Amino acid sequence: MNEMSAILSVDELKTWFPIKSGVIQRTVGYVKAVDGISFDIRKGETFGLVGESGSGKTTTGRSILRLIRPTSGKIVFEDVDITKAKGSGLQKMRSKMQIIFQDPYASLDPRQTVNSMLRETMKAHGKIGGYEEAHGRAKELLGVVGLSEEHLYRFPHEFSGGQRQRIAIARALAVNPEFIVLDEPTSFLDV
Length: 191
Description:
- The chain has 6 helices and 6 strands, in the order ββαββαβααααβ.
- The protein is α+β, with helices and mostly antiparallel strands.
- The chain has 2 domains: 85 residues, P-loop containing nucleotide triphosphate hydrolases (Rossmann fold, 3-Layer(aba) Sandwich); 98 residues, Rossmann fold (3-Layer(aba) Sandwich).
- The strands form 2 sheets. Strands 2-1-3-4 form a 4-stranded antiparallel beta sheet. It has a two-stranded parallel ribbon with strand order 5-6.
- A hairpin with a 4-residue loop joins strand 1 and strand 2.
- The longest helix has 14 residues.
- The N and C termini lie far apart (38 Å).
């Protein structure tokens, strides 16, 4: 991949959701959340997708990461067609791509401390060697987002919305991704 080639190419992406009706829940139509969007993003480039509420921005981001299966189209990340990726290939791709969701209240596990959330993310993507290394990296990540070591041992309900969003940002950065989808990540942050 040369400097000018796209790290991500989206070609005619469509993500439609079926409308079901009747006792047997037959499909009677579709909500066309994303209907034929195409774009390229190059390494080091910031790309903004702008539209009114309900125009498919979040669905586009979730489709790119394959959190939602696209109806059709092609998504190529680092020369790999991720619309066809499965199993370990999809897992490998996800360690290179992360998402920061708009709502930190829904995106953090209420039963885990910040430390265990960050360590679990690093472990799931094979980014840590042991507890000490993971703990050190978790402390470092909290510092990056403006929180301190004492916050590692707290649960999500003990934080404000802005602090929760900072934790979500730290979690996305924990795997050193090459590409991050930001779904209005500053909506809960204070100035």
